Amino acid sequence: MWTGIELLHMLQDIRLEYPILEDFFAAVSSRITYLAVPVALNLLFYWCINKKQGEILALSFVPALLFTVVSKYGFDQPRPWELDPSIIKVEGVNAHGPSLPSGHTASAISTFIPASLFVRNRLLGVAMITLMVLIIVGRLVLCVHTPLDIICGIIVGLVAIAISWKSMGIAYDDDRSYHIVNAAYAVFFTVLFIVSLVYWDADPKNIAWFAGIFYGMFIGRTLDRICLRYEIPQTGIKEHALRFVVGMVGCAVILLPFIALNPVWGSPIGGALMMIWAFFIYPYIITKKRIFC
Questions:
Q1: What is the pTM assigned to this prediction?
Q2: Cα separation, 75 vs 264, whole angstroms
Q3: Is the pLDDT at 290 greater than 70, yes or no?
Q4: Do 58 and 217 form a contact (C-beta atoms < 8 A)?
Q5: How far is CA 269 from CA 130, 181, 285, in A?
Q6: Choosing a second label site near 247 at 20 to 30 A (CA), which of 47, 77, 106, 281?
Q7: DSSP secondary-structure letter at 231?
């Protein structure tokens, strides 16, 4: 099967000749850029800019990342240094488990393409696309993915965008359709989680962490639609900024203690509670207590 691994030999030679590239691309592809930044962008839109766009981003980014993480165990494609011993493994870079498809790529595509289309400032849009390209190129320069992994990650990201955009376009303003879409996502990923654990020998701890994020988002969005129907307050930039900062601090306060207490099972519990906070509890507080309004 073609993987395009030949390209990595050239990129590895360049990286070894210019060691600064390793540090640069390791920083660019850290958890901050492919996890924290996408989550922050999702919630910035959901809380402060345009709720529908925030939901499109959430239903694009989270499913794309989940699908890549889980499907890796089904494809079970070795990492480049396992395919070719001449490829040098870069220590300290985030690259765990099987290789195909690229989760960083799917995450970057599914977040920064729609977000760049939503923002009104062209420079911000260009900056997002630039960061997306750097993340993808960095996975090749660091030799943690083959071109095949990257191509599959791009496809997953684009499909996630298309499904999210279309489903929210149809269902956002209709409660029945909205819940059907929500339920369809839940059924699909529940089946995928079960298959990965039963048949693909997936890492239960890794699956649990991402399942917590997904089900927390599912519960939070459902509760919002049934009990609240959050509407973004029409306020100034200062109030929007305060709302965003306080919300993100709340996310950290909820998630980090659980991880510190028990990194294995604290992560999925904390992740689920963080998403419920983000999509329902915090909007409820904003609406009912009229803070930052």
A1: 0.93
A2: 25
A3: no
A4: yes
A5: 34, 24, 21
A6: 106
A7: -
